[in-house]
Design goal:
It contains eleven helices and twelve strands. The protein is α/β, with parallel strands linked by helices. The protein has three domains: 74 residues, Arc Repressor Mutant, subunit A (Orthogonal Bundle); 104 residues, D-Maltodextrin-Binding Protein, domain 2; 91 residues, 3-Layer(aba) Sandwich (D-Maltodextrin-Binding Protein, domain 2). The longest helix has 27 residues. The radius of gyration is 23 Å and the shape is globular.
Length: 313
């Protein structure tokens, strides 16, 4: 009997599928229960009922870790497709009602967290019945979400062009050299990179879009990069630079969203590194009405200069 027939004849509920999707996403009953605001035994019971209905094992426990079985992977793909169809129906109905209900799922690379929330807040005030979900991760994390078609919109500074995607320019994202406010070269114009060769260079981890852009730029310019110290977040990089651990190359937006004067931008030859943010979608993906409205809101905000004064420095 097909999975579809089992779903129909054994009356599997959408709630069970929603719980399964959450457990599959977190690979943890505890985290899924917390995300769904359910008791852990309730989650376990519903997963067991779904597995019984489908007559297959959905998860396996290896040591302390939970894994999807091959059948679980197939069910997850179908469940995502099913919910995508339901979301599409919901947004079509919402469109007829003037976008009064619906969901908006956005995943962005880490530096875009300084950019998107401002617009998202305005958008949610305009459409209070839209339920937003906002995910932040490094480039590798967001690529995985893109591959699994988990969201309505994605924002990248360096889109994964090895995948079948559609990209649209969003706005500029220049990368600049930052240093502690009392740095010896703070007032010097046209600093050559070789003058910074003795400095420790603090950088994001492999998989970060910023690091990808920096390494590509150094290769194109024929510049020699000192061995970087890897730090896992922009906030930690800023704190480390302020503590005098070294210099860093970051998005100018990162520098602008701190207390003025704590860090400075050095005037280095060939900087800032040109870089941009892009809207990205899997090729052929239908864009929900909520996502279309959010994109339109951002375009209007940019057109009227609606970014922060800090952002438009």
């Amino acid at each position: 009997m097909s999975i579809t027939r089992r779903l129909h004849t054994r009356q599997t509920t959408f709630r069970q599928l929603e719980i399964f999707k959450s457990v599959a996403q977190h690979l943890s009953v505890t985290l899924a229960a917390k995300a769904l605001h359910l008791a852990q035994p309730t989650v376990s019971t519903q997963i067991n009922k779904l597995a019984h209905s489908l007559d297959c094992q959905l998860f396996e426990q290896v040591g302390k870790r939970l894994y999807l079985t091959d059948m679980g992977q197939e069910v997850l793909k179908s469940v995502r497709d099913l919910f995508a169809v339901m979301d599409n129906l919901e947004t079509q109905l919402a469109k007829r009602k003037g976008l009064s209900v619906g969901h908006l799922r956005i995943s962005v690379v880490t530096t875009a967290k300084y950019l998107i929330p401002h617009w998202l807040g305005e958008y949610c005030q305009q459409y209070p019945e839209i339920e937003p979900e906002f995910q932040i991760g490094n480039r590798a994390d967001i690529i995985q979400r893109l591959k699994q078609n988990m969201d309505d919109l994605y924002v990248f500074s360096n889109p994964p062009r090895e995948l079948e995607i559609e990209e649209t320019f969003l706005t500029e994202n220049p990368l600049v050299v930052i240093a502690r406010k009392d740095h010896l070269l703070r007032d010097k114009p046209n600093i050559g990179w070789q003058e910074l060769s003795s400095e420790r260079l603090l950088m994001r981890e492999q998989g970060s879009g910023t690091r990808y852009a920096i390494e590509r730029f150094f290769g194109q310019q024929g510049l020699i990069m000192q061995t970087p110290i890897t730090i896992a977040s922009n906030e930690a990089i800023k704190e480390s630079v302020m503590a005098g651990l070294g210099i860093a190359i970051v998005s100018r937006h990162v520098l602008n969203h701190i207390e003025p004067g704590n860090l400075i931008e050095l005037d280095v030859v060939d900087f800032p590194i040109p870089n941009s943010w892009y809207w990205v979608l899997p090729k052929g993906k239908y864009m929900s009405s909520a996502a279309q409205a959010f994109q339109a809101h951002v375009i209007q905000a940019l057109a009227r200069g609606g970014e922060d004064a800090q952002i438009t420095k």
